[in-house]
Amino acid sequence: QLKLVESGGGLVQPGGSLRLSCAASGFTLNNYVIAWFRQAPGKEREGVSSISRSGTQTNYVDSVKGRFTISRDNAMNTVYLQMNSLKPEDTAVYYCAARRINNPTLNREDYRQWGQGTQVTVSS
Protein backbone atom coordinates (compact mmCIF):
# COMPACT_ATOMS: atom_id res chain seq x y z
CA GLN A 1 0.00 0.00 0.00
CA LEU A 2 1.45 3.33 -1.08
CA LYS A 3 1.55 5.82 1.74
CA LEU A 4 3.01 9.29 2.35
CA VAL A 5 3.30 10.68 5.86
CA GLU A 6 4.13 14.30 6.61
CA SER A 7 5.65 15.49 9.88
CA GLY A 8 7.42 18.50 11.33
CA GLY A 9 4.63 21.03 11.40
CA GLY A 10 3.86 23.20 14.39
CA LEU A 11 3.57 26.71 15.77
CA VAL A 12 6.43 29.11 15.06
CA GLN A 13 6.93 32.85 15.41
CA PRO A 14 7.37 35.06 12.35
CA GLY A 15 10.95 34.85 11.14
CA GLY A 16 11.35 31.35 12.52
CA SER A 17 12.11 28.06 10.79
CA LEU A 18 10.60 24.61 10.43
CA ARG A 19 11.63 21.51 8.54
CA LEU A 20 8.89 19.33 7.15
CA SER A 21 9.45 15.69 6.28
CA CYS A 22 7.57 13.48 3.85
CA ALA A 23 8.23 9.80 4.46
CA ALA A 24 7.15 7.15 2.00
CA SER A 25 6.16 3.58 2.72
CA GLY A 26 5.08 0.83 0.41
CA PHE A 27 7.07 2.17 -2.54
CA THR A 28 10.52 3.38 -3.47
CA LEU A 29 10.58 7.13 -3.36
CA ASN A 30 13.36 7.57 -5.92
CA ASN A 31 10.94 6.44 -8.64
CA TYR A 32 8.71 9.42 -7.96
CA VAL A 33 8.65 13.16 -8.27
CA ILE A 34 7.59 14.71 -4.96
CA ALA A 35 5.88 18.04 -4.44
CA TRP A 36 4.75 20.05 -1.45
CA PHE A 37 1.39 21.80 -1.53
CA ARG A 38 -0.35 23.93 1.05
CA GLN A 39 -3.91 24.94 1.75
CA ALA A 40 -4.92 27.83 3.96
CA PRO A 41 -8.47 28.19 5.30
CA GLY A 42 -10.82 29.38 2.57
CA LYS A 43 -8.18 29.12 -0.12
CA GLU A 44 -7.38 26.64 -2.85
CA ARG A 45 -4.53 24.18 -2.49
CA GLU A 46 -1.41 25.64 -4.10
CA GLY A 47 1.88 24.12 -5.17
CA VAL A 48 4.82 25.27 -3.07
CA SER A 49 7.81 23.28 -4.27
CA SER A 50 8.69 20.15 -6.21
CA ILE A 51 11.75 18.01 -6.85
CA SER A 52 12.67 15.58 -9.60
CA ARG A 53 13.49 11.94 -8.99
CA SER A 54 17.22 12.53 -8.82
CA GLY A 55 16.93 15.83 -7.00
CA THR A 56 18.69 17.75 -9.74
CA GLN A 57 15.63 19.82 -10.69
CA THR A 58 13.58 21.82 -8.22
CA ASN A 59 10.74 24.32 -8.56
CA TYR A 60 9.31 26.89 -6.17
CA VAL A 61 6.32 29.18 -6.16
CA ASP A 62 7.47 32.79 -6.25
CA SER A 63 6.25 33.57 -2.74
CA VAL A 64 8.71 31.12 -1.13
CA LYS A 65 11.77 31.52 -3.36
CA GLY A 66 14.84 32.27 -1.29
CA ARG A 67 13.14 31.12 1.92
CA PHE A 68 12.20 27.46 1.34
CA THR A 69 14.46 24.63 0.20
CA ILE A 70 13.30 21.22 -0.95
CA SER A 71 15.62 18.23 -0.80
CA ARG A 72 15.44 14.47 -0.84
CA ASP A 73 17.27 11.57 0.73
CA ASN A 74 16.36 8.59 -1.39
CA ALA A 75 18.25 6.23 0.88
CA MET A 76 15.95 7.32 3.71
CA ASN A 77 12.89 7.34 1.43
CA THR A 78 12.19 10.89 2.62
CA VAL A 79 11.77 14.36 1.13
CA TYR A 80 12.27 17.49 3.18
CA LEU A 81 11.05 21.08 3.00
CA GLN A 82 13.25 23.49 4.95
CA MET A 83 11.26 26.64 5.64
CA ASN A 84 13.11 29.73 6.85
CA SER A 85 12.02 33.34 7.47
CA LEU A 86 8.46 32.17 7.93
CA LYS A 87 5.64 34.66 7.57
CA PRO A 88 2.06 34.60 8.86
CA GLU A 89 0.88 34.09 5.29
CA ASP A 90 2.73 30.75 5.24
CA THR A 91 0.16 29.42 7.70
CA ALA A 92 -1.57 26.42 6.11
CA VAL A 93 -1.86 22.67 6.09
CA TYR A 94 1.10 21.35 4.12
CA TYR A 95 0.77 18.20 2.02
CA CYS A 96 3.28 16.15 0.10
CA ALA A 97 2.30 14.37 -3.09
CA ALA A 98 3.91 11.97 -5.55
CA ARG A 99 3.81 11.33 -9.27
CA ARG A 100 5.63 8.80 -11.48
CA ILE A 101 6.25 11.03 -14.49
CA ASN A 102 9.63 12.73 -14.04
CA ASN A 103 8.36 16.29 -14.49
CA PRO A 104 8.26 18.22 -11.22
CA THR A 105 5.24 20.43 -11.79
CA LEU A 106 3.32 22.42 -9.20
CA ASN A 107 -0.09 21.46 -10.59
CA ARG A 108 -2.14 19.48 -8.10
CA GLU A 109 -3.97 17.68 -10.92
CA ASP A 110 -0.70 15.98 -11.88
CA TYR A 111 -0.35 14.13 -8.56
CA ARG A 112 -2.14 10.95 -7.56
CA GLN A 113 -0.67 9.97 -4.18
CA TRP A 114 -1.19 12.37 -1.26
CA GLY A 115 -0.36 12.46 2.40
CA GLN A 116 -2.74 13.55 5.16
CA GLY A 117 -1.04 16.89 5.79
CA THR A 118 0.69 18.66 8.66
CA GLN A 119 -0.37 22.00 10.13
CA VAL A 120 2.03 24.94 10.03
CA THR A 121 1.03 28.02 11.99
CA VAL A 122 3.13 31.20 11.93
CA SER A 123 2.02 33.58 14.63
CA SER A 124 3.39 35.72 17.42
Could you characterize what this model shows?
The chain is mainly β and 124 residues long. Helices cover 0% and strands 48% of the residues. The strands form two sheets. Strands 2, 4, 5, 6, 9, 10 and 11 form a seven-stranded mixed β-sheet that branches. A four-stranded antiparallel β-sheet has the order 1-3-8-7, with no helix packed on it.
- Biggest sheet overview: 7 strands, mixed
Q: Encode the helix/strand succession as letters.
A: EEEEEEEEEEE
Q: What is the CA-based Rg, rounded?
A: 13 Å
Beta fraction of the residues?
A: over 45%
Give the tally of β-strands.
11
Head-to-tail CA distance between termini? 40 Å
Q: What's the average pLDDT?
A: 96
Structural class: mainly beta
Number of helices: 0
- Which spans of ≥5 residues are poorly predicted at pLDDT below 50? none
Oligomeric composition of the shown chains: single chain
What shape does the CA trace take? globular
Helix content: under 10%
Brief summary:
This protein has 124 residues and is mostly beta strands.
Give the helix/strand layout:
Layout: E1 3-7, E2 10-12, E3 18-25, E4 33-39, E5 46-51, E6 58-60, E7 68-73, E8 78-83, E9 92-99, E10 113-114, E11 118-122
Parallel strand pairs: 2-11
Antiparallel strand pairs: 1-3, 3-8, 4-5, 4-9, 5-6, 7-8, 9-10, 9-11
